[in-house]
Amino acid sequence: MPAIVNEEECSGCGTCVDECPSEAITLNDDKGIAVVDQDECVECGACEEACPNDAIKVEE
Fold this sequence. Notes:
Blueprint: E1 3-5, H1 15-19, E2 25-27, E3 34-36, H2 46-50, E4 56-58
Antiparallel strand pairs: 1-4, 2-3
């Protein structure tokens, strides 16, 4: 299952955007939080590892 962002925990730091090898994550302009393109996510877990707030999970 692709990565899921916990909007309450996401600080909008952009670390996940920088670490995503498939460029599947962007920051939402309105809320300033990470958004995952479910079709582009390769479920590698790089974003989950990189997130300093533990706001992203890749479900198995």
